Amino acid sequence: MNYRHSFHAGNFADVHKHLTLLAVLDYLLQKPKPILFLDTHAGRGEYDLHSTDATRGNEWQEGIGSIFNGRFTSPLIVRYIDVIRKAQQGSGTLHTYPGSPLIATHVLRDIDRRVFVEMQAEECLALRKVLRQPQHHMINTTVNQGDGYQSLNAYLPPKERRGMVLMDAPFEAADEFKQLEQGLLRAAERWPDGVYCLWYPIKSGGLVNPFYAAMKRSGLRNLLLAELSVRPADTPLGLNGSGMLILNPPWQLDTRLRAAYQELLPILAPTTQGHVRVEWLVGE
Ligand SMILES: C[S@@+](CC[C@H](N)C(=O)[O-])C[C@H]1O[C@@H](n2cnc3c(N)ncnc32)[C@H](O)[C@@H]1O
After folding, report:
1. Is 168 a catalytic residue?
2. I need a labelling partner for 139 at 20 to 30 A (CA). Which of 97, 107, 131, 219 fits?
3. What's the whole-model pTM score?
């Protein structure tokens, strides 16, 4: 396995993914009852934007770098930038990018439970180290080195009966869409009421179309597609768009996401032809 998220941290797809993640978490946290946050492909938790990896493609400059100092009207964007700003730990300039574990840790309460699963030993070690910093309160937190898809069996259904699962696979394996689909079906059978967010890449070659078709046929209901593309889907090479399939999305999430993505689009895709797609793949 070669995937290193440090090359991509803070790029447009991370902006899209983490803004969406925060919107879901904030909704779940409106109620006083505890939740479970299960992050099946957690990564290392924190990324230095001036590292050799990050500066190789400088992807973050066209993502978080392009919006960090902007002014926005969408509450979801304002909230997301605020969380990224707090991760700079007092420095007003952008130098570090928090991954999904730190973003979640930032908003979760001590009563909530966090489970982070990561396959690569090095990434897992780095995540443990970062979470041990006192500001992250390692309360109710488990970091497991292992297979995120297997963790769906181990941790679901959760005793809290409320919460969400983020499945953010690296898409190195040719059958990743299939694994994601099977993972979701197994998980939803064990815990039908959970909120599930599955990230997927939009690239040329149309691999995403069989995924939509399989999910439509799956029998699952209440499936929302939330996509932000910075180039037409058939542009050869590279990542054209970032997608999130959400099972059991919070009330009116679609409207709020659409407004946020539309406000971001001219900045994340200033010279290319991007688009926003937020629609129900299967309704309630
Ligand atoms: C896209 S990155 C995760 C980024 C992270 N979720 C975030 O938002 O900051 C995907 C991660 O999955 C890890 N990984 C790959 N295969 C895995 C598997 N089967 N189970 C768990 N983690 C895996 C990779 O090492 C990589 O760190």
Report:
1. yes
2. 97
3. 0.97
Which amino acid is located at 97 in the chain? Answer: Y
Q: CB within 8 A of 209, min separation 6: which ones?
A: none
Ligand 1 in contact with 98 (CB < 6 A)?
no
Choice among 48, 110, 168, 193 that is catalytic: 168
Closest CA to 273 of 230, 236, 225: 230
Q: Exposed, middle or buried, 193 (CB in 10 Å: 0-12/13-18/19+)? A: exposed
CATH topology of domain 5-282: Rossmann fold (3.40.50)
Task: Judge whether residue 45 has pLDDT over 80.
Answer: yes
Give pLDDT tens digits for 59-106: 999 999 999 999 999 999 999 999 999 999 888 899 999 999 999 999
Element of type H or E holding 177: helix 176-190
Asked whether the predicted pLDDT for residue 137 surpasses 80, the reply is no
Distance 184 CA to ligand 1 centre (A): 16
Q: Which helix (H) or strand (E) holds 23?
A: helix 12-28
Q: Is the CB of 117 under 6 A from ligand 1?
A: yes
Distance CA 3, CA 182 (A): 22
Distance, in Å, from the CA atom of 230 to the CA atom of 79, rounded to the nearest integer, reads: 22
Ligand 1 within 6 A of 163 CB? no
